[in-house]
UniProtKB/TrEMBL annotation:
One of its GO terms (molecular function) is RNA binding. InterPro entries: Ribosomal_Su5_D2-typ_SF, Ribosomal_uS9, Ribosomal_uS9_bac/plastid, Ribosomal_uS9_CS, Ribsml_uS5_D2-typ_fold_subgr. The lineage of its organism: Eukaryota, Fungi, Dikarya, Basidiomycota, Agaricomycotina. Belongs to the universal ribosomal protein uS9 family. GO terms for biological process: translation. This is Small ribosomal subunit protein uS9m. GO terms for cellular component: mitochondrial small ribosomal subunit. PROSITE patterns: RIBOSOMAL_S9. Keywords: Ribonucleoprotein, Ribosomal protein. Transmembrane segments: none annotated. It comes from the Eukaryota.
Amino acid sequence: MQSILRQLGWRSPAQYVLRRSRYSLCSRAYSGAPFVPPAQLAEQPRVKLTIDADGVPNWHGATMEDVNAVISDDAMKEILLDPDVRGKGKLAPESPSFYTGRAPYYDTMTSLQMALGQIRATLKTLQLLPLPPFARASLLPMPPLWKNLEEMSSEVGMKLNTTRYRRLLVVLNELHECLRIATTAGHTELADMIEQVVAMFERGESQKEEYMSRGKRTIAELDEFGRSYTLGRRKTSSARVWIIPRITSNVKPVDVPTTTILVNNLPLSQYFPKVVDRERVVYPLKVAGVLGKFNVFTIARGGGSTGQTGAIAHGIAKGLLAHDQELLTVLRKANLIKRDPRVVERKKTGLAKARKRYTWVKR
């Protein structure tokens, strides 16, 4: 290739420096072409090639025989003579991100970001953005279930790594947030449009149902006598709780009904003499508004008074949920359905207690 270009008159910067110098012998010694006398040089065809601004080669009157005499490589002739082969007339890439090497991924991100911008502009026009915190907290719960890394790679059209997958999920989560806002506000047309975009990256309905039912809490059932049996835990304590509905007669009672609570065959006031402990036990009944409607019998084992009262309250809340499932929202907001995971931290070797250290003495 260099010999062909050298025949066309191309010189390197070093050759230009040597050509301007007075040492012609050094210039001849550096040149790779053999020395040709001036008389013979006039007999050889002189071929001059320039490229116009449009990329069209100009041979300055040289014929094809002159080009064949200078250039013997057929591939080089095709490159120099055919402008289409050299790049003129070549179609532009289909994607603006073609030269990034990851055109499918960046095209998908660009289209999603453009759709997100248009949707946000529409929500701002409808006075739905920005939302105050209390309005955002009241949005309909619509947890998304996106495709995993392998499924998302096949959807995009190229293999994704973890970083690009997370960046894609950030945009999809923002689109899903706009979907929740549009659905809660009642704009069905906008919600359907967002749903069409988001549905391409979500899992199927069967996988959604399986995923949603995976962490669903099982509710205790009533036995043939209408009793519920549940188990509550707190710290190292555990409590087995039976809740029985009160049987009232047709006669109007004179006294206000009360709930009988027995802990290890002892009345509540006798087993827990402190008012704080008793209030902690009856707190689920007060929150649900069923104080006086049920009788409670429980067996508590392990731990101290705080752990046992927490375990009994946990069991009572689960038992009330078995009798009336509509109490789920109330009991959940009161943090009574989920077990309190806090336990005492263990003592560490070399420390006085779990985190307390001994006094450091210099001498």
